[in-house]
Write a structure and sequence with these properties.
By secondary structure, this protein is of the alpha+beta class. The chain has a single domain, classed as Macroglobulin (MG2) domain (Immunoglobulin-like). The protein binds 2-acetamido-2-deoxy-beta-D-glucopyranose (2 copies).
Length: about 200
Amino acid sequence: MVSSSRILVFSFVLVCFFGTCCGAQKKRHFSDLKNVLTVEVSPTTNQVMKAGVDTITVSWGLNQSSPTGTDAEFKKVKVQLCFAPISQKKRAWRKTEKELLKDKTCQFLIVAKPYIPAEENFTWTIKRNIPSATYFVRACAFSSEDHEVAFGQSTDAKHDTNLFTIQAITGRHVSIDICAGVFSAFSVVTLFVFFFLEKRKKA
Ligand SMILES: *[C@@H]1O[C@H](CO)[C@@H](O)[C@H](O)[C@H]1NC(C)=O
Ligand SMILES: *[C@@H]1O[C@H](CO)[C@@H](O)[C@H](O)[C@H]1NC(C)=O
């Protein structure tokens, strides 16, 4: 009979082994990706777009000056909305990390689809849950192992140029609600005041 403590030790060793070997293998960095996708977006520099209303058209494709076969391992493309540095300041939850698994620059999916070797585009209505911030768009190509292998973005390497702004609708709705609340409270008070004055006049 195998003692349970032996099984425990064995599974512990097994977990450690796989944990270290596979964990180390999976650490992939943004700098490992080839910048071979071209990405263009419909908003012009500094354009202000409204969440829930406006649309963004993203076009992407393989940079035609890349060597033949560059896209041979591309299986899937994922296009995401990414925070620009100005909207990442003092916000650890949007921080850019060199390690892909930890990177929080791009948090909103625009579209994911199988890769085809052609210019493609997608028109996206900005989701209502997108927070007010300054953004750019990044497309990533994935291999058959579902790893990022290449990218392209609508800005430069420093995320400095060609940025656009999205204005969330929630903020506006909240202020409208507050206004409505204040006005209805005001009208109730007014009603009572008039009622009181009328009563006094009659008395
Ligand atoms: C395509 O790649 C070349 C060489 O790397 C680069 O100079 C050029 O700017 C790229 N074109 C686009 C549209 O990104
Ligand atoms: C988007 O793709 C379609 C189909 O390939 C094409 O006809 C259209 O011209 C493209 N639009 C833009 C804005 O690139």
